[in-house]
Amino acid sequence: MKKKIVVLSGAGVSAESGVATFRDADGLWEGHDVMEVATPEGFAKNPALVLDFYNQRRRQLFDVQPNSAHKIIAELETNFDVTVITQNVDDLHERGGSKQIIHLHGELLKARCTVDEHTVIEWAGDIVLGQKHPDTGRQLRPHIVWFGEAVPAIADAAIYVEQADYIIVIGTSMQVYPAAGLIDYAKRNAKIFYIDPNPASVSGFNNEIEIIKMRASEGMQIVRDKLNNIAEHN
Length: 234
Hints:
Elements (H helix, E strand, L loop, with lengths): L3 E6 L1 H5 L18 H4 L2 H6 L1 H14 L7 H8 L5 E6 L5 H5 L4 E3 L2 E8 L7 E2 L17 E5 L9 H10 L2 E5 L20 E5 L13 E4 L3 H17 L2
């Protein structure tokens, strides 16, 4: 029976592939206020702007490739039962080879109608005003969880965290809720690896946490070797 690993990943993993992290140091997303491009209110006010913002993000996916961090995470499936729980909306974990992925904040390569969140369809091209969902006949929107919207996958994600023997936190400060609350579901004896060149404070946790102050790809090489060594001796 393979031990269970949960990987909690964020923008820092994709950044090494050249995917721009949305939020810059000045708090803007690609020059836009977050309220303009990542809220239901912003979409209602200026849907064309929001659609164009995500069209640009979607097009960027075809110019980037998974990096060694994505690939090493997938390699762990040889010796472990691995679930990736990501805040990223790109498909780089999939292309890197991971088989079991939960996208907390949606996926750029999917769309849904503006009325029913369950009408999700595959979508690789642009979305423009007037483009309707084939089943509902309503305007299409990106399959992205915007600020102020519920995170449907959070309950399933919490169950996987509860069952994990090892947790890898990588490319995310785990400061944004509800994703940040997932670590609270870890069982007492679960070992946590926290990979970040500038890690946030980890005080207040009951678990053993090993902090690795490196970029995602470098840190994953260290964690892979540690975990494979454990697997070989168990």
